[in-house]
Amino acid sequence: MASLVATRALSLRIDWINDTIKLMLVDETFVPSRDYDFVSEVVAKEIVTDGYARQTLGPAGKTVTVNKPQNRVDFDAPDVSFGALGAVTPDTIGYGVVFRQQANDATSEVICMLDAADILTAGNIVNGVFPANYVFYLSTA
Predict the structure, then answer these.
(1) What are phi and psi of 8, to 5 degrees?
(2) How far is CA 13 from the centre of its chain?
(3) What single string gives the DSSP state of each residue in the chain?
(4) CA distances for 133 relative to 63, 64, 76, 116, angstroms
(5) Which of 96, 97, 112 is nearest to 14 (CA)?
(6) Contact 57, 77 (CB under 8 A)
(7) Is 121 within 8 Å of 92 (Cβ atoms)?
(8) What pLDDT is stored for residue 12 in this prediction?
């Protein structure tokens, strides 16, 4: 799963452990960019399908780990399940967008975008399964 970290996220004081971090799903026409700052800039591409709701990462199980052998900092959270999506109105998931929830979409900051490799919902159970040890990472090299 490829990830792209938003440039603004590098300057934020995000508390990965204690802040409300969420995952939203966007469709296959979404084009990731480091320049997305807020959820309001990507919400037009959010999937529109039955059974869908944004999911919270954690709060239990979120970790930040300095990974010295790989020269990076790993940000991890437990996998999430969106349940069965799109039985009536199928959609195709192109990316997952991780963001810090604030008062509304205009103030909720995009952290990163994760490639979902075009998953068709069509009544299937959709899980946000992250790689072992991280949702995303920042390289220190």
Answers:
(1) -60, -35
(2) 18
(3) --EEE-GGGGGS---TTTS-EEEEEEETT----TT--BGGGTGGGB---TT---EEE-STT-EEEEEGGGTEEEEE---EEEEEE-SSS--EEEEEEEEE--SSTTTPEEEEEEEEEEEE-TTEEEEEPPPTT-SEEEE--
(4) 9, 9, 6, 18
(5) 112
(6) yes
(7) yes
(8) 85
**Contact status, residue 112 vs residue 3, Cβ threshold 8 Å:** yes
Q: Which residues contact 64 (CB under 8 A, 6 or more apart)?
A: 16, 17, 73, 74, 75, 76
Give the residue carrying structure tokens 């807020």. 38
Task: Give the least confident one: 7-11, 56-60, 95-99, 125-129.
Answer: 7-11
Structure tokens at 79: 């996998």
pLDDT band at 2 (very low <50, low <70, confident <90, very high): low
CB 71 within 8 A of CB 141: yes
The structural domains of the chain, with segments of one domain joined by +, span 3-139
